[in-house]
Amino acid sequence: MLYRAPRGTSDILPQEQAYWRYIEQKVAEIAELYGYERIDAPAFEDTKLFARSVGEDTDIVKKEMYTFEDRGGSLLTLRPEGTAPVCRAYLEHGMKNLPQPVKLYYIASIFRYERPQAGRYRQHYQFGYEAIGDDDPALDGEVIDMAWQFFLSVNLRSLSLQLNSIGCQKCRPNYVAALKGYYASHTQELCSDCKTRLKRNPLRLLDCKKPSCQMVADSAPRSIDFLCPECADHFSRLKRYLQLLDLPFVVNHHLVRGLGYYTRTVFEIQPEEGGAQSTLVGGGRYDDLIEELGGKPTPALGFAAGIERIILNLKKQKVAIPTLAKPRVFIAYLGDEAKEGAIKLASALRGAGIGVIEALGDKSLKAQLRQANNLDVRYAVIIGEQEIKAGTVILRDMTSAQQKSVPVSQLQGLLK
């Protein structure tokens, strides 16, 4: 039997790792600039955490979660999104006693049983930033700016920032009632999923990607027309702050996001040519989530970004990324005594911080140097019986093919 990776998963091969290291480095750099600290939560949590936070009527909870019963009888779920675990950790570890807002970020694997597509797998990876403990719209502006600055830092361009406000518990019921009233006369035009959403989660009607449903959504009531005075002021100030930051946003009245915990601000960053199905970043406010999970009322917001989709866009835009460092020295030898000398020398060089690849087996010197050339190392160090006796090595420049005999005592300094 030839085993393969499960459907919807993929191996991240060595030749792809440079992209992942590049993104991880930029994520950490942006975090440092804005004062965010890393947190790593478990890969699985109590199933109730996600049912309560994401929303029992969402597609994620109803169709996409990987849930299992462990040997102790507990019902657990592989992490389908990153915000709820961070909020659980905020509560569990008493972070409300820290200076607010608490700023955290993560890089994590995410698990959802959904149809695999380009840049989105059943196990995929994302990073996210969460700011918990303040309702100032200036914080919304900072978080959105942070997302935008990340893409500038990785040299991605031709992106669109989409923005909306979906109100709060005070004003959203009136909007939902207006949505239901509008869609009640368009049920024959809706897909089967949207007919279910009309009953269970009306906001998601605006988010459907099917053309027939999008046409209906084009004339649907707009959430910003139903905002209470507090939400309207919050959204107005946020737009002002984004203008001060020179962020070119577009108000998208269809934007609601797919998770049940969002309030007020929602935003996405998309490739200009890709549209909503190619979204790179999605996020917004979730001012009620901490309270929903058992804490005191605590405003919060954040965003998450899919790493696979970012890499697809880096390749599409032909962004040059740094190559990963690799050993620049290859040690070749002739004879058993020279092999022992090569082993000791390789250890000494590595101890001095010099990357080394050793020849193995009983290949000829010609074959060893051919291997060094294929590995694209800069220098070959050659040891034979004569070099062992003299306390020297032959240092060969693989680019110019020039070589010279040097004392072992001087080799580290020359290579450095």
How would you characterize this protein structure?
By secondary structure, this protein is an alpha+beta fold. The chain has 2 domains: 14-171 and 227-316, BirA Bifunctional Protein, domain 2 (2-Layer Sandwich); 329-415, Anticodon-binding domain (Rossmann fold, 3-Layer(aba) Sandwich), CATH 3.40.50.800. It contains 15 helices and 16 strands. The protein has helices at residues 17-34, 47-54, 59-64, 83-92, 137-153, 172-183, 192-200, 211-218, 229-244, 289-292, 307-316, 336-351, 365-374, 385-390, 408-415; strands at residues 37-38, 44-46, 67-69, 75-78, 102-111, 123-132, 159-165, 249-251, 263-271, 281-285, 300-306, 329-333, 356-358, 379-383, 392-397, 403-407. The strands form 3 sheets. It has an 8-stranded mixed β-sheet with strand order 1-5-6-11-10-9-7-8, with helices on both faces. Strands 13-12-14-15-16 form a 5-stranded mixed β-sheet, with helices on both faces. Helix 1 (17-34) packs antiparallel against helix 5 (137-153) and helix 5 (137-153) packs parallel to helix 9. The chain starts with 16 loop residues before the first helix and ends with a helix.
Query: Can you identify the CATH superfamily of the largest domain?
Result: Bira Bifunctional Protein, Domain 2
Query: Sheet with the most strands?
Result: 8 strands, mixed
Count every beta strand, where a strand is a DSSP E run of 2 or more residues: 16
CATH architecture descriptor text of the largest domain: 2-Layer Sandwich
For this structure, the CATH topology of the largest domain is BirA Bifunctional Protein, domain 2
Question: What best-fitting shape do the alpha-carbon axes yield?
Answer: elongated
What average pLDDT do the residues reach? 92
CATH C-level class of the largest domain is Alpha Beta
Low-confidence stretches: none
Domain module count: 2
Distance between the termini: 48 Å
Number of helices: 15
Oligomer: single chain
Order the strands across the largest sheet as they lie in space: 1-5-6-11-10-9-7-8
| Binned strand content | 15-25%
Structural class: alpha+beta
- The percent of residues in helical segments reads 25-40%
Report Rg: 28 Å
